[in-house]
């Protein structure tokens, strides 16, 4: 639990983690596609869904450049820029999408906005977490993202079954 996801990606079993990150990226792509099909909002909705597409690409880049984490060079620069982009994109996308989800129900609005607020409150603290706790804390903030994707996926499945 002391090792970060990126640190684990430089082991000989890194392909397992890279596959998981690739599938996680695919989940954001699927959510973006499903949300665009729902058409629940105006410009905020479309921008939020577009940010999810960018987030999917960003996570793919992180998966492919995570072996450079903590090292010098171009790969390390790409990795850290992608991590910063992830922080910004996951703050804004669920926040913008929340306004359209209000049409589905107030609880979905609160859920999406709550995930964005929790993320913006807790994710930056990772950079101040002691090294002995980095891995555990990173998994905690990753759980916020996983919760949002799982919740929106459930909503999309339920919506698809009704139509």
From TrEMBL:
Domain of life: Bacteria
Record keywords, A-Z: Membrane, Transmembrane, Transmembrane helix
Regions crossing the membrane: 20-38, 45-63, 78-101, 108-128, 140-157
InterPro entries: DUF998
Pfam families from the UniProt entry: DUF998
Protein name: DUF998 domain-containing protein
Organism: Vasconcelosia minhoensis LEGE 07310
